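Fig. S4 source data, part A: sequence.
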Amino acid sequence: MVKNKSGWQWDESQAVESSGEQAQNEMDEILTRAAGTATVDDAEAVLLGRPRVQEPRETTVKIQVRVPQSWQREIDRKAAGRHLSRSQYLRQLIRHDAQQKTA
């Protein structure tokens, strides 16, 4: 993007092609930088409207689940790739799935 007299304009000469995990990591970086946060979860909360301290918040509950050790390794690998804790990564997955419309 280049700023000119009429505003921001796309600069094709600076375009870079990305895909897969690399693209996800780049978008996570852009999102966290735009929100001024350290994690994608925090960025989503800020950009979607984090409740203020004085606002009532929904009570949270702890959910425990057992998974095969190989799943844990994969979950941790993917979480680390997004610079998230295991809990943050799993909350993202659950929130994403919960927000999907059922067919």
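Fig. S4 source data, part B ends here. The chain has four helices and two strands.
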